[in-house]
Write a structure and sequence with these properties.
The chain has 303 residues and is of the alpha/beta class. It folds into two domains: 2-56 and 129-302, Rossmann fold; 58-124, Alpha-Beta Plaits (2-Layer Sandwich). Helix content is 38%, strand content 27%. It is built from eleven helices and 13 strands. The protein has helices spanning 15-26, 41-45, 73-77, 109-113, 151-168, 184-190, 204-219, 235-247, 261-267, 272-275, 279-302, and strands spanning 2-8, 29-33, 48-55, 58-63, 83-87, 96-99, 119-124, 127-134, 137-144, 173-180, 195-200, 224-229, 251-256. A nine-stranded mixed beta sheet has the order 3-8-9-2-10-1-11-12-13, with helices on both faces. A two-stranded antiparallel ribbon has the order 4-7. The longest helix is centred in the last third of the chain and has 24 residues, at 279-302. The chain is elongated and about 75 Å long.
């Protein structure tokens, strides 16, 4: 079983469209959508949800109005201005203190300092994660709630579940749709992966962010290759990216031209492989062949 993670230095490079196309080509796979802050692979996969679970990435404080004595100690020690004096009345007070769940950072200071033990410190529900069936195989995906954090922890959970399913069902590949950028969710997506494919585009911002994400994968010593999507919108920049990657000892294994059929395929809820048999599909098939060759070469070197 091999795990390939597809990431990008910036959003909008076409990463998820390429993931869907690779899923259509790979065969015996498990899919994982680790772009939990803005998950959209399900739009192309049209999953049938089989399991749904709450995700708790931390804790959250809550004042029990009946026990509040109105001393204001919680407001004094809160560094996030999450405590307000507008809670419900109780038998003694016309108004009590309350905690704004959006502003609360889950540090627990108010819980420890409350003299009346009026504060509960409970597991917070930050989102949900799912195990679904798709036409290409199982998909593990998630939905992080608005203003919720700990996406790195959720990414690690999704990858763990995907690996478990792949092992139980004897799948050949895990294909992971990772997050853009170089932050915590990306690090959680790529750690210990067998191969990382970085999808970029020929723009100044994309080139800059590509270099940063390649430095990140290099830091973790993860084999990395690059695909330049929409390669013909700026041929000069495409050439510059190829040269820069060569200097960084990173292979550019795919160059995919811009094509309006990609947008049409998205509207139809399909991958480009399913939607069209034009030259663009051939380019993506060549990309998958190059990825497979990279895996084979890596195995031979390890052997």
């Amino acid at each position: 079983m091999k795990e390939i993670v597809i990431i990008s230095g910036k959003g909008g490079t076409g990463k998820t469209s390429i993931v869907a196309s690779l899923a259509a080509l790979a065969g015996n796979i498990v899919l994982a959508d680790c772009d939990v802050d803005a998950a959209d692979l399900h739009l192309l996969m049209r999953p049938e949800i089989k399991e749904e679970h709450d995700f708790s990435g931390g804790k959250q404080a809550r004042i029990v109005g009946e026990r509040c004595i109105g001393c204001g100690r919680c407001a004094e020690v809160c560094n996030f201005s999450a405590v307000t004096f507008d809670g419900p009345a109780n038998e003694v007070l016309e108004k009590t203190y309350a905690i704004d769940p959006v502003s609360c950072e889950g540090c627990g200071v108010c819980f420890h300092f409350c003299p009346a033990n009026a504060i509960e410190f409970e597991d917070a529900v930050n989102g949900q994660w799912f195990v679904s069936d798709t036409r290409f195989g199982p998909l593990v995906h998630a939905k992080l709630g608005p203003a919720q954090e700990n996406s790195g922890k959720l990414v690690s959970l999704i990858r763990k579940q995907a690996k478990q399913i792949a092992t139980e069902r004897k799948k050949d590949f895990i294909i992971v749709d990772g997050s853009p950028g170089i932050g915590c969710p990306v690090i959680a997506s790529i750690t210990a992966a067998d191969l990382v494919l970085v999808v970029t585009e020929p723009t100044i911002s994309a080139r800059h962010d590509l270099e940063r994400v390649v430095e990140l994968t290099g830091h973790f010593k993860i084999p990395t290759v690059v695909c330049i999507n929409k390669c013909d919108i700026n041929l000069k920049m495409t050439e510059e990216i190829v040269r820069k990657m060569k200097d960084m000892n990173i292979a550019v294994i795919g160059q995919i031209p811009y094509d309006v059929s990609v947008t049409k395929a998205q509207v139809a809820g399909q991958s480009i492989i399913e939607y069209s048999s034009n030259g663009l599909s051939d380019r993506i098939k060549s990309l998958w062949q190059a990825l497979s060759f990279t895996f084979d070469t890596k195995d031979q070197n390890n052997g």
